[in-house]
Structures are given as C-alpha cells and as structure tokens.
Amino acid sequence: MDKKLTLDKVYSASFKLKPIARKTDLIHAQNLGENIYLKTENLQVTGSFKIRGAYNKISQLSNDEKSRGVVATSAGNHAQGVALSCRELGIKSTIFMPENAPISKVEASKAFGAEVILQGNTYDDAYKASQEYNEKYNKTYIHAFNDVDVIAGQGTIGLEILNQLVDVDQVIVPIGGGGLISGIAFVIKTLKPDTKIIGVQAANAPSMKESIESGKISELKRVNTFADGIAVKRPGDITYEIIKEYVDEIVTVTEAEIASAILAILEKQKLICEGSGAVSYAAAMHNKVDVNNKKTVAILSGGNIDVNILSRIISKGLVTTGRNTTLSIELTDKPGELAAVSKVISEEGANVIGVEYNTLEKTNEIFSCVLNIKAETRNAQHIEQIERKLKENGFSLYSEEGEDDGNKI
Questions:
Q1: DSSP-derived 3-state class of residue 375
Q2: What is the mean pLDDT of the segment spanning 257-275?
Q3: What span, in angstroms and rounded, lies between the C-alpha atoms of 340 and 362?
Q4: What DSSP element (H or E) covers 342?
Q5: Are the beta carbons of 179 and 53 closer than 8 angstroms?
Q6: Given the DSSP bridges, would you call strands 170-174 and 196-202 parallel, antiparallel or unpaired?
Q7: CA torsion angle for 154, 156, 162, 165 (degrees, to 10)?
Q8: Helices (H), 169-221
C-alpha cells in the first residue's frame, strides 16, 4: 500500500465523502474581526471533522479487515466518526476512550453502535490499552491521526477552503496529534503555496510544538486542558514530518483564552464550539496570530462540548474578558458603608449580581470585614474605572495571596 500523501488521495477522499460528510460553510465572521472567516466543522456530521478521515480510511478496508472488526482510540470525536462509519458500512467497532472523556461523546459513540471501553486518564493511556487489546484480538486498527488515508480525509477541508475563499492569506488550525493540520497544510501549500498555515495547541498540551522546536518527536509527561480533543502527549511520526515541512508556525493559547473564545463565538456568531474547536479563533482573538489585512480562516474543528462544563467555561470566559468581576472591598464597621459602595458602583454603570459579607481575619482593628461584590461589567477598562472610583471615595480593595492562576475551568 502506498504510504505517501498525494493530492490524488485527497481528491479521491472528497469523492468518497460526498454521501456522508457535509461541505461545511465558511462564514465571514465580521462580528469577530474584519478579516476572520470561520470554517464550521463544528456543524459537521457527528459534530466534528473526524468523520472525514475515519470514513475515508474505513471505506478502503479489505473484506478481511472489515470482517475482523475495527478498533480505535479517541478522546471522543474520532470515536463518533469511526462508529458512524462502521454503522454505515456494516462493520463492528470497539473504541477505547479515557475514563474522563465527556459523557456526551461516550454516549454518542454508543448510540452509533460502537462498543466503548474506558481506560486511563488521557488519550495516550487509552491508546496503549487499545494496542494491548488489538494484539490479543487481531482486529483492524484505525488511528485517529497517524495514518495517510485519515490525513487525506481531513485534507478535503483544505480543498473546500480554496474553493470558498480563493484569495485566503492564512489558515489557523488546531493541533492535537496533527492529522487535521497535516491534511489541510499539505493541500493548501501544494495548491496555493503563498498561504500561511498556523497551528494552535493548548499551552498545557504543546506536544507538537515542543517536538518541532526540539527537532525530534517528544512525549509530554502530562497534559492538563479542558480542550480534550487536542490533549495528546505524543504526536504521530507521519504528522510530525508533514507539519515540519508544510506548517509555518505553531502558537499556544491558555485555558482562559480558549474559554473566552468559546464565549465570543457563542455570543457573536451563535455557534457552539468545544475547547479544541475554539483554539484557532482564540489564537486570533488574543493576538497570537496577526490578522491585520490578512484574510484569515479559523477552523472550528468541533462542537461536541459537554453541557455539564459549558456554564463553567462561559463563566471563565466572562471573567477573562472583563464581563464579570468580583470586587473585594475592605470596610469599616459603621452604618452606611454598603450603601456608599453601592452608590459608586451604580454610578459607574455596573450591575451587581451578588453580595457576600465576610469577617476579615486581620489584627487591624480599623478594617473589620470584607465585602465581595460580584458585578457585570463591560470590559477590563470598565473594571479599572470602578476600582479607581472606589479608591477615590476612600475605599480599600482587598486581595488575597495565592489567587487562581487562570488555568482552571
């Protein structure tokens, strides 16, 4: 079998995918930025781009490979792509997922007919378990990213982008194991070499970035990101070589930056993204990528977010963008203090949504309590304006040591 990625393989994949995968819209998202275009793979069948690579690979299996059944490893999106592909092609599927995989992704995979086995805390843990299982049962393994036919399937997104925006200047793509960006980068760099391809990883899971920078594939000791779709400790060797040749740059975004991007996309474009699906726009939103005077496509790679954590992500996004804040104010123990604070906040146009009054454990007899006021604000500048006015009116702001580092959701 030819292991080399070619345009012919990508064009062939595009033909195979017509009955099952959507040609997703490319939206000019002027609400998010004058030069921002969103490739909405979050609206793809199964809620992510993964159906493209999975179906392209599985549809080419021999009768013997199909009869044995397939095994895959996934944080959730590849699982659904494999499960749906196997259901359509009449093949039995067994999928290993981390024990902390989002419940919604586990249940969706089961609904498509897959047997799901939960193993380990990360994708890499589940992958090792799947390999041990496959050695015992000799099924056909469908890799999530380190496979030329899977990469060719993902590369069909690149063909669509070039048809939808012929004068595209740059494309921002999430990176986990590297299958998505490998396919897109190969296609676009081959057909339109002047287009810049930029990869994005979570700052807490930068396996490909570190591998490229060190000149060899490296494995992280741990990953810690709510963007589970790109939480990969070790990238693939095939994807590593393609990225090294065709990708211009890899940047990272923090958990708080990802959360704020999810919020912006939801609020301004009415689209839901999971963490891994929003990192591309997060990179543009937080100036990790220069989009000035450059027509920029951000790949929204998936929308399968667990609703149980969506509210926490939105809350984090509101805090990160200065839309929500907690003002902690030291008060003296005398009548009228709360009213005076409320007057300042009201005059500055903030909306109080919560008040908490605590005794302040200090030996200083002047300050006997701290007032925590949760407020809706416009932005970070608005918060600074309120804090300045409070100080001008004689109030002292209270801060505790060891505050949250901004990486938790």
A1: strand
A2: 94
A3: 23
A4: helix 337-347
A5: yes
A6: parallel
A7: -70
A8: 179-191, 207-214
SS3 227: coil
Amino acid (one-letter) located at 218: S
Q: What is the pLDDT of residue 391?
A: 92
The alpha carbon of 171 is separated from its chain's Cα centroid by a whole number of angstroms, namely: 16
Residues 6+ apart with CB under 8 A from 270: none
Residue closest to 259 by CA, chosen among 225, 302, 232, 219: 225
Strands 36-40 and 26-28: antiparallel
Judged on CB neighbours under 10 Å (0-12, 13-18, 19+), 263 is: buried
Using 50, 70 and 90 to split pLDDT, how confident is the model at 321?
confident
Average pLDDT over residues 204-208: 97
Cβ atoms of 21 and 89 closer than 8 Å: no
CA distances from 287 to 261, 262, 269, 291, 317 (A): 12, 16, 19, 8, 16
Write out pLDDT tens, residues 327-385: 988 887 778 888 888 899 999 999 999 888 776 555 455 557 888 899 999 999 999 99
Q: 378 vs 313, 321, 364, CA distance in Å?
A: 18, 9, 34
Query: pLDDT-derived band of residue 402, with 50, 70 and 90 as boundaries?
Result: very low
Higher pLDDT, 256 or 288: 288
Tokens of 213: 């920078």
Q: Which are the contacts of 19, defined by CB distance < 8 A and separation ≥ 6?
A: none
Which two tokens mark 365?
């007899």
Report which of 232, 162, 139 is spatially closest to residue 7, judged by C-alpha positions.
162
H helices of 77-143, in order, are 77-89, 103-111, 123-137
Q: Count of CB atoms within 10 A of residue 397's CB?
A: 12
- Give the pLDDT band (50/70/90) at residue 405: very low
